[in-house]
């Protein structure tokens, strides 16, 4: 059994989640000690069987130009087979740098000036940045809430794609901030509407490895026999908390699209670094058991948060996947003011709804990937603060 309560001491490492300077920039006058439950980053230490692999790479001491080893792809292929029962073609795997950089390149390469990109709101804020950065127009399609769960309004989606002449859907699956997994039927409907209208679907699946409560996560790649109007963006970054290594992969079965993406990376001289490329393999080879226990720890921490929030006037979206909980605090409208005031009075740092583009009124996101005592302490403080407003 791994001990997820012995967390890393990250305060002096310039990590965004724990660094004082960054926290003061984001949360003015936040009280110390901090209880950082905001940025999507985990506090857990990787086990020795994984971190040892990193030391082995470093101890070779060779950091010159390199070619990516074949095992980069074969380890991803094996991971998909074990985790999702999916057969990935080795030729469909494209090594990429971080998810955002790659989606930025894809939008720049595949779309044309002023083309329209549709996102389901609320959603991960940088989707807006990468769209606008590429001189594209962002079209919002609000998700609907039924019994604390998001749903896509397919009738409206169909009409909007037609009426607005949408060229691309940027899908987040599992959905950040709510952790909703879009099921195979929903994915099929999205791809069908997209195919009919000549629309590309980019499916950001970086949270996909952390399906909770025996939910199964299925990549949109599962539908590759019927469709090829998609690009999957995947990564070990969230699963193993290695975002700073800037490594990921795309799954692309359409050869033209794949060539465009590879060309876009080459043109811009974007290359994977050796540490990210090789450590990705180390994680995927050795991480099965650790990820299984990580998921159990996240489930326990979500239960803990739920136990406290049950007593206050709020609506909790229990995630299907990932370590983030999206909560609507019914007593508040202005979540930014709430997050700043909460930080100032208690040191608890939550991700404010306004970082998720639209349709976030009263919402904040709680990251549970820390040790249980920090989380419990933070929950007590949130409750006390909320009950007083
Ligand atoms: C949905 C989603 N996509 C992409 C990213 C960023 O990934 P990367 O650091 O690989 O660019 C995040 C980070 O939180 C995320 O939540």
Explain what this protein looks like in three dimensions:
With 389 residues, the chain is an alpha/beta fold. The protein is built from 13 helices and 14 strands. The strands form three sheets. A seven-stranded mixed β-sheet has the order 2-10-9-8-7-3-4, sandwiched between helices. It has a five-stranded mixed β-sheet with strand order 1-13-14-12-11, sandwiched between helices. A two-stranded antiparallel sheet has the order 5-6. A hairpin with a 2-residue loop joins β5 (144-146) and β6. α2 (48-60) packs antiparallel against α10 and α4 runs parallel beside α5. It is globular and about 60 Å long. The N and C termini lie far apart (42 Å). The model has no long low-confidence stretch (mean pLDDT 97). Pyridoxal-5'-phosphate is lined by residues 40, 98-100, 124, 172, 176, 204, 206, 235, 237, 243, 248.
Task: Give the helix/strand layout.
Blueprint: H1 20-26, E1 35-37, H2 48-60, H3 71-84, E2 93-96, H4 99-110, E3 116-121, H5 126-133, E4 137-142, E5 144-146, E6 149-151, H6 154-164, E7 166-172, H7 184-196, E8 200-204, E9 230-234, H8 237-240, E10 248-251, H9 255-267, H10 274-286, H11 288-309, E11 314-317, E12 324-329, H12 335-346, E13 348-352, E14 363-367, H13 372-388
Parallel strand pairs: 1-13, 3-4, 3-7, 7-8, 8-9
Antiparallel strand pairs: 2-10, 5-6, 9-10, 11-12, 12-14, 13-14
Helix pairs in contact: 2-10, 3-10, 4-5, 4-9, 6-7, 11-13
The chain binds pyridoxal-5'-phosphate.
Residues 40, 98-100, 124, 172, 176, 204, 206, 235, 237, 243, 248 line the site of pyridoxal-5'-phosphate (PLP).
Domain Aminotransferase class I/classII large: 58-382
InterPro entries: Aminotransferase_I/II_large, Class-II_PLP-Dep_Aminotrans, PyrdxlP-dep_Trfase, PyrdxlP-dep_Trfase_major, PyrdxlP-dep_Trfase_small
GO molecular function: transaminase activity
């Amino acid at each position: 059994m791994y001990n997820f309560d012995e967390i890393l001491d990250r305060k002096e490492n310039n990590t965004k989640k724990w660094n004082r300077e960054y926290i003061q920039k984001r949360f003015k006058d936040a009280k110390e000690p901090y209880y950082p439950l905001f940025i999507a980053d985990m506090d857990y230490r990787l086990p020795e069987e994984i971190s040892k692999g990193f030391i082995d790479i470093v101890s070779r001491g060779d950091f010159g130009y390199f070619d990516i080893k074949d095992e980069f792809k074969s380890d991803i292929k094996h991971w998909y087979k074990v985790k999702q029962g999916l057969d990935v073609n080795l030729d469909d795997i494209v090594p990429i740098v971080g998810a955002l950089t790659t989606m930025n390149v894809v939008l720049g390469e595949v779309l044309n000036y002023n083309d329209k990109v549709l996102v389901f709101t609320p959603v991960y804020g940088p989707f807006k940045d990468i769209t606008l950065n590429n001189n594209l127009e962002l079209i919002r399609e609000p998700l609907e809430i039924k019994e604390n769960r998001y749903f896509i309004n397919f009738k409206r989606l169909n009409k909007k794609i037609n009426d607005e002449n949408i060229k691309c859907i940027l899908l987040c699956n599992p959905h950040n901030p709510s952790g909703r997994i879009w099921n195979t039927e929903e994915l099929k409907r999205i791809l069908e509407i997209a195919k009919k209208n000549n629309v590309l679907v980019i499916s950001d699946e970086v949270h996909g490895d952390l399906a909770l409560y025996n939910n199964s996560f299925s990549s949109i790649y599962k539908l590759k026999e019927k469709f090829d109007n998609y690009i999957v963006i995947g990564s070990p970054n969230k699963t193993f908390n290695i975002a700073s290594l800037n490594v990921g992969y795309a799954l692309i079965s359409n050869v033209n699209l794949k060539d465009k993406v590879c060309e876009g990376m080459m043109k811009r001289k974007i290359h994977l670094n050796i540490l990210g490329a090789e450590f990705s393999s180390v994680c995927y080879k050795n991480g099965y058991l650790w990820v299984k226990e990580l998921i159990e720890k996240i489930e326990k921490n979500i239960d803990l948060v739920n136990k406290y929030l049950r007593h206050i006037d709020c609506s909790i979206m229990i995630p299907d996947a990932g370590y983030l909980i999206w909560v609507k605090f019914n007593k508040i409208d202005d979540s930014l003011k709430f997050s700043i005031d909460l930080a100032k009075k208690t040191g608890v740092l939550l991700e404010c709804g306004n970082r998720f583009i639209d349709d976030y009124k009263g919402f904040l996101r709680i990251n549970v990937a820390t040790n249980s005592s920090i989380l419990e302490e933070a929950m007590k403080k949130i409750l006390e603060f909320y009950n007083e407003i």
